[in-house]
Amino acid sequence: MLTQVLEVSKSTYYATKDRCPSQRNQENEQLKEEILQIYEKSKRRYGAPKIMHKLVQYGWKVSLKRVQRLMRDLGIRSIIRKKYRPASNHEKVESRENLLKQDFSTTTINQKWAADITYIHTQKEGWTYLASVMDLYSRKIIGYSYGKQMTTSIVVNAFHQAMQNQQLKDGKHLILQTDLGTQYTSDEFEELLAQYNVRHSYSRKGTPYDNIIQGLSLFMRP
């Protein structure tokens, strides 16, 4: 046994072993330093989604949940005020503005995007979900994310991919059209759009045709 070879007691061996930081813990400490630097450089405006995007740009392979957990450990969060005042669910839905009003015309790329979640049924995994972002000028899918659960993470990841593929750092001239699904109306997604200065347009309740991307993905639905 190793303790006999080293001539140390079991308690001493395990106490020493426990004090050695694991590779995961060391990586978390490095990540915390990176997160703090990004957070401070943004003047404390960046939340977890945009910090994760920056980390990926720097070469890190990290999930949104991990960044959120490390930010909680550090006791930091975005100081950007929420776009909408606290209200009941009914009030929130009514306050979502349809900026496009079915005007999907554009003169160039990155003026108007549309995002949607497509339900895909598979034999092995049952229902799965594809979040897509389409540029209304090129009519091309510029970002997507696929998952087994319809979470906010898949719409966040699809949007990040679209921003990266379009090499867009500031969305001040961009409008994103979505439906009123909980993923798109979540605080996390709203915060992400605010950080990129993207204006959010919502399909009117009961009029799904306002979200043009649905026409592209209907063939994928059962």
From TrEMBL:
InterPro entries: HTH-like_dom, Integrase_cat-core, RNaseH-like_sf, RNaseH_sf, Transpos_IS3, Transposase_IS3/IS150/IS904. It comes from the Bacteria. It holds the Pfam family HTH_21. GO terms for biological process: DNA integration. One of its GO terms (molecular function) is nucleic acid binding. Residues 104-211 form the Integrase catalytic domain. Involved in the transposition of the insertion sequence. This is Transposase. It comes from Tetragenococcus muriaticus PMC-11-5.
